[in-house]
Amino acid sequence: MGVFTFVCRNSGDEWTGKSISGDLEASARSTFELQRKLVQTAYSADSSGGIQSSFSLVTPTSGVFQVIIGGASGGAFIGGGGGASVAAPAGGAAPAAEAEKKEEKKEEEKEESDDDMGFSLFD
């Protein structure tokens, strides 16, 4: 699995992306084109599996782009903050997920009731 993080900057009418670790880089006229080129660049360095990517603007002229190659299968990405957990253990994951779904349904049913508001949309 390869994780590639790029710092992206806009100068004039061109976006550039440079890898934090390593010497991978690309440039393009738009962020969309830059993302495509950076994915191709990262994939040429590590082609071990599926590709996931994420782009976030930090300021109007800078951003961070991350490419993950060969992560979890099945299209699921579980992560956050600094470290990312890519796969859940098989033992107790299913019952916990079912309990969470039941709690969500209960909360949704409570939120749908607008009897306590004292007015109706059609009054």
UniProtKB/TrEMBL annotation:
- As recorded in UniProt, coiled-coil segments are none
Any one GO MF term held by the record is:
structural constituent of ribosome
Q: Which stretches does the entry tag as region Disordered? A: 86-123
- Top-level taxonomic group: Eukaryota
InterPro entries, from UniProt? RPP3 (IPR044252)
Query: Where does the record place Basic and acidic residues bias?
Result: 98-108
Q: What Gene Ontology cellular-component terms does the record carry?
A: ribosome
Keywords, in A-Z order: Ribonucleoprotein, Ribosomal protein
* Ranges of compositional bias, category Low complexity: 86-97
Q: By what name is this protein known?
A: 60S acidic ribosomal protein P3
